[in-house]
């Protein structure tokens, strides 16, 4: 395991959803609360911004070009980093107080994204599976739908409900896109941090950013923590494997929430990178 380095020094309010593009060798990511989709080029240090009009919780690259994304107003396509937004569908049009949060594509090209309830007064956050222009509810009853990832053989779906400090695993049928046999995969005690965004490596280990804990953990398929990385920010949010060999782990974070936190973690909001020993997986793209 290498040293944690600052890949992009920036003051992101809520950095999230890093996605490595193996074609352009760049890292896409979002700043949810600043309504921004970003493209970061590690080779040049240039970060390009597409300013949106609302929160973008998560996105995926599309096979046809551009992106599919989950905005507060629902699923959309984005033509390019110059814009061009077209609505697809909003499965939670009746819940305007909720927003989309975390998601990614499965190996069949479905885009799966989950919502959160900011009031945390009801387990009303759900994951939805978007196939073409149709969205169906896949997993329900969360406060904060998070940590979505798939095992290398596509037979296990992982997700977390951050406020419950818990990561769940389910059997996943790639052909039908259905889940079954949900069980607890990992739980974290208070003080460790809460499981936020995640990624799975090529050996099937689940990597989780522990929000509030200032760390990233690598968990083997049996649910045991086998590595811990300390992050120079209190609130790491999500992970992506990148680089030519997919052995660079990129970590997004949030801006410091207090003067005390800013003093202790002056690089909060930045994107960090660390070289790891195991490669990640190429991220699937949206579309048939």
Report what the structure shows.
- It is a single chain.
- This protein is mostly beta strands and 288 residues long.
- The chain has one domain: Neuraminidase, CATH 2.120.10.
- Helix content is 2%, strand content 54%.
- The chain has 1 helix and 24 strands.
- The protein has a 4-stranded antiparallel beta sheet, with no helix packed on it.
- The termini are far apart.
- 50% of the residues are buried.
How are the secondary structure elements laid out?
Elements: E1 5-8, E2 15-21, E3 26-31, E4 36-41, E5 46-51, E6 56-61, E7 67-71, E8 74-80, E9 83-89, E10 99-105, E11 111-116, E12 125-131, E13 134-142, E14 145-150, E15 156-161, E16 166-173, E17 178-187, E18 194-200, E19 206-211, E20 215-219, E21 225-230, E22 236-242, E23 248-253, H1 259-264, E24 271-275
Antiparallel strand pairs: 1-24, 2-3, 3-4, 4-5, 6-7, 7-8, 8-9, 10-11, 11-12, 12-13, 14-15, 15-16, 16-17, 18-19, 19-20, 20-21, 22-23, 23-24
CATH superfamily: TolB, C-terminal domain
Shape-level CATH architecture: 6 Propeller
Q: Return the CATH topology.
A: Neuraminidase
Distance between the termini: 37 Å
Q: Low-confidence parts, pLDDT < 50 over ≥5 residues?
A: none
The CATH class turns out to be Mainly Beta
Largest β-sheet summary: 4 strands, antiparallel
Q: Output the radius of gyration.
A: 17 Å
* Structural class by secondary-structure content: mainly beta
Q: What is the global morphology?
A: globular
Helix content: under 10%
- Structural domains: how many: 1
